[in-house]
Amino acid sequence: xxxxxxxxNAPPVFVNEEGQVPYFDYLPxxxxxxxxxxxxxxxxxxxxxxxxxxxxxxxxxxxxxxITQDAKTTSDKVKRxxxxxxxxxxxxxxxxxxxxxxxxxxxxxxxxxxxxxKDHAVLFHVMLNVLEIKNYMVLVNSSEKIIEDAKVTHKKxxxxxxxxxxxxxxxKGA
Length: 174
Prior knowledge:
The protein has about 170 residues and is α+β, with helices and mostly antiparallel strands. The chain contains five helices and four strands; from the N terminus they run H-H-H-E-H-E-H-E-E. The protein has helices at about 40-50, 60-65, 75-90, 105-110, 115-130, and strands spanning about 90, 115, 135-140, 155-165. It has a two-stranded parallel ribbon. Strands 3-4 form a two-stranded antiparallel ribbon.
């Protein structure tokens, strides 16, 4: 009474096979979220939950400054950091348990020399902040499907990324 029900008679059987098209292209999918949930609120809640991961420890500060010590422009600093991380911090997907949502600290990622997308994004974000380069953590839909507001769920937030809008970081000497 007062609720909704969904009945699917003889649903298709899902068998995961390597290289197949995504299941949501051929199976009926129902996303359930709270009435008042929306992407800005979920993003805000997520960033609050991982806020302690954004601490710039001494090892991160020293490394960020060392990598960019001879860089003349903001753009050059960003490129040097990115290239360093790309070459020296291996990507390893860690998507099970709480690690599917909660990143390591930037210091842990440097010391491990590996991390998943969340770890890379946090490390890059912290290093840019150390250099006073304005940037933002963003939640990215990694599927090829458009996610409607009615389908808000943590399961859809697969990747975190860092943006460096040029308008917020005016080049000096460029």
